[in-house]
# Entry
Amino acid sequence: MEIEIGIGIIGVGLLGDIHLMALETIIKEQYFKDEANISIVALADTDEPLLKRQGEKYHVDNLYTDYKDLIADPDVNTVYIVTPTAFHYEMYKAAIAAGKDIFCEKPLTDTLAKIDEMITLRDQSSSTAVKDQSNRIVQVGLVLRHEPLFWYIKQIVEHQSADWGKLINIIFRDDQAKPYTGSGTHPSKWRRDPKMAYHGTLFEHSIHDIDQIQWWFGSACNIYARVRSFAGLDPIEDSVSATIEMENGASLCLCSIWHNVIHDTRYIEIFFENAYIKLDYDNTIGKININEVGKPRRRVKARDTEKYYMEAHGLKDFPKHWLRGYGYENIAFIRSLLSRKPASPSLEDAKTAHGVVEACYRSSQEKRTIALKELIP
# Structure
């Protein structure tokens, strides 16, 4: 018997549209044709003209200007929260109280205490579920875990040669054109408003980077950072430099920048005693170079890592339509919905990344090294 997955998406702007494209691909390519009947049954947004256009584009009839009406829709059992950050917390609480499974974009909310409450509500909802007596499934949109180039680094790290020796240092630079100017690839301006976004490049963008580093190498422990707003939009920072000590003894140098150049790149160098890995990434295009003592240099291109990702996850062919990292994270979410096993990245993963972000802000304010255990005991 096929499982019904009725999806409602709250927020149909830039990122909402990306998820709609990814889900449309999954449905059209019939990735789960023998397991589930997946449909996008409802959309919600306060921008009524945009909502109408997206409804027509994706052939969705149930359109709501109030997200509570979408959550109350009996045909919706899975809610995507793809709105400005300030709305995530209340929308999540409403959806979890209604017994829905949830995909929530990052950052989750503005404080660790609220994330703790979100975790508690998920667990309480799971323990009182009546319809299927199963856990509520919640996945967070830390998409780089499902971007093949970054996923491939995880495979390298997990299967590294013993000859590589100890991990010594990681250099991670993330730079992006300011996503709040209303132009370029980000047509909205809400990320410049502290009431909507809370913070800037570290919180909105490099929370991905922090999640990646801890996913690859384990937990951070001590953080020293300098956070600045050259554009004068404090607390919307556009420059962060941080030195993060990992529990395994390695040191991470993180540089996160928003600027006016049309650019969206990540440049990563990973130094072992006897090996060196470099990742150049430019908005899904990139390559990995691997250098080992006594061996020829290896180069792995983005297309190759996508092939390896698909093979590892049982996806036979490249999709005819748009997919990439956002598609793969949606596939992972749907698989969790079908198996009723916890999704990844989880609320706990997001909390850990958020803790490091908070430590960076506190370190910059207090001009001292912050131990992560001060925030997350």
User: Anything to note?
Assistant: The longest helix spans residues 347-366. Residues 145-314+353-372 form a domain with the Dihydrodipicolinate Reductase; domain 2 fold (CATH 3.30.360.10). The radius of gyration is 21 Å. The mean pLDDT is 94.
